[in-house]
């Protein structure tokens, strides 16, 4: 285990996260050291120099815990251990030590809403029977109907179908996600105590922060009789529509904040304090509650990710997001891609209103996406994001310009959404295809063998080795942008230009730095200033469509 005295040297600035660039690593798809086709911790450690060279401030590790992968690792069998297929706790300690040596912080995922059905607690609950203390750690209920044959309520799983599963003795347990992910009962004090232990366990091993999965779903209204939801959607912000804030039986209940205030006391006991960021799919005003200084401190803002490629819409989203963060005393967060959504190099080129699932089911052919045009727009969106005040979260592979792999054959799909929806929703595998590091080899350098999801042949052109040192490549654009960003950062404000042309976003970050993004269909004149960086070549000194430029003032 890393010595605590060393940890204090890993960051002398307790607010390092406020304008950090955080790189999300999906461990199973980043780098494979042992050749089994599955990414692992030693593979990540070997590639940390890539992240340090890229210029990010931290890496966020998606779950690496013991799991049967019923939901890509978010079905956690033991939250204080490493999946043997991915390594050991010693491997984790080595990763943290190397990251800190390179000046990188480490953030890990915490999955508190549910466990795996393989967790020792759930197995104990199944054997203990109705009314037992073991079952009280989860949400077990008797069914409705003459013989208890009907689910206890009409609550639906995010992945499709009922959120209840019946066990052999006749009771039902709640699972808001896959049946292999039983929901924990956060009214149970033993559950609360165990997660305090988990936070301390990883903090003691050198972790600098935590990303809290489904942070808005822990506390539920379990009073009898359980409330049916009727026509209300099962998840996301739309589930909260039409109900008074804080009153939905499953999501964003006011009582959840008591948990995070308790967690903040633990996180602040470390020097430096550990940061945390909430994944909370709630409207902005409610999201600010999770980001308060006495709670998690920061919350993901998905409005930028979901916004269309439209100047007016983006300006409003940016303004509202900054206002929400400011009200919470937090900094804003920005993200374009992650392990749950279609990669933005493809998504941003789809016509407004495109049904993304239908597009995936078509193999990415209806409509077809122009990869070159998509990459141009993705590069412009990235430079815009990196110029905004706050933290930017970058998903692995976007620095290579990777598109979505929309044409994965159905027989190789791993996401439980595919099976659980009866082959109606294709799922998220297309953004989780292992990274290409080299232009050749059985898995383009991902590992000495193959890869757990097939990589398209076109990945060779996006490989790190194909872009390294190549002027104008997407990889070099990210490296240059992050290097400049570190030098230019000053304060957490921006000032919108009042005279920007239609379809153009223009703002000043400081007296030395200005960002201009052309979302219109025609080239526009550049304002005065030295061109520091452009996402695409200028057109006779003018800013072309789908292009962002940073100007020195």
From TrEMBL:
EC class (word): hydrolase
Alphabetical keyword list: Glycoprotein, Glycosidase, Hydrolase
A GO BP annotation: oligosaccharide catabolic process
Domain of life, per lineage: Bacteria
Domain Glycosyl hydrolase family 13 catalytic: 24-432
One MF annotation (Gene Ontology) recorded for this entry: alpha-1,4-glucosidase activity
Family annotation (Gene3D superfamilies): Glycosidases, Oligo-1,6-glucosidase, Domain 2
EC number: 3.2.1.20
InterPro entries associated with the record: GH (IPR017853), GH13_cat_dom (IPR006047), O16G_dom_2 (IPR045857)
UniProt similarity note: Belongs to the glycosyl hydrolase 13 family.
PANTHER family named among the record's database cross-references: ALPHA-AMYLASE FAMILY MEMBER, NEUTRAL AND BASIC AMINO ACID TRANSPORT PROTEIN RBAT
The name this protein goes by in its record: Alpha-glucosidase
